[in-house]
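To illustrate this point, what follows is a protein record of this kind.

___
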Amino acid sequence: MRLRVKPELLFINKNLNIIIMGIFDKKLNALKQLSWEEFYKTPLKKKLNYFENNGRMFDCLFAQQFSPENLTRLFEVANKIRKIAKSKEGLDWLQTLLSHKRAMLYFVQPSTRTFVSFQSACYILGLQVSEIRSTSTSSELKGESPEDTIRTFSSYADLIIMRHFEEGMAEKAAWMLNRTKRPISIINGGSGKDQHPTQALLDMYTLHQSFLDKGGISNKTIVMVGDLKRGRTVRSLTYLLKHYKGVKIIYVSPEYLRIGNDIKDFLKKHKMPYRESGELDKALKEADAIYMTRIQDEYDINGESKNIDFTKFHLTKKHLRLMKKNAIIMHPLPRRQEIDVEVDDDPRAKYWRQERNGMWIRTALIAYISGIEDKILNI
């Protein structure tokens, strides 16, 4: 039986959509009138739409941009890409999808995994890649501003993936380019001590894959260990764990390196149970996932890290007997001494798989931002 809709209802619905779009356009235009300083101070929730296009993510800058639906979609796309890429025919097909596009990898802060995984992700989808790995190899050495450098990249590229030592620089780049006649997407590959959204994305993908047959991520206890004050990965991961019911977080660190008050406020606002601890052994017994991090001493002001005893927060072979049999161990890498190499052979150690997951989920993200994920899912 075919339902008939009254014409007057269609008219009302159409007018309602026009009104809603009008309000949205007014808010967007108001944001465009703000100076960078005013825009940067605007609460994130009020400006997220600025980084969208037709209701889809256009720039990937913050972990808070990922909804539960986004995450599920990206996990599906990543899994499909992995499957397709197993054969030469499949990989050859994937490389036709964006062979007409160009990407700039602008990484002026040291990186191995993030750079190589994004570079590999671009190659998988056929993107032509250019790179800048230091300000000393660009016109910034001559005094050009980072803003002008990024504007120059936009003349040649269709996508900029960037890592910068300055907090907020990825957001500033997106804010600036979205005001031009040739806006192109920006992906934040790490921004100072602030955020690392794609690391959080690959961390969630690793948790998702690891707990597929264990009831999923919901109701799990996640133990985060190390430099929680300056580690951008734990911040971004915390934001995404909000989407899963019953998740409990235990933050384990030296007193000086405890998680920031802004993250605690976020946890309280979203009624996410957490606690802080200085006892690694006790926390390990409760953990479903242990997320180890290194000390971020590159952010020291007066060499303060040298005065902190980190040995109590190192994971060694003797700790393995304290852990649940089906727990997993993760690390965003690089590592120093916080995970003993003897731990690598334990089946619960997932950080090398986590590293490879980064390539697949970042490929899925580029496909999503480029609007080709349906082609991949429907093949």
About this structure: The mean pLDDT is 90. The radius of gyration is 22 Å. The longest strand covers residues 185-191.
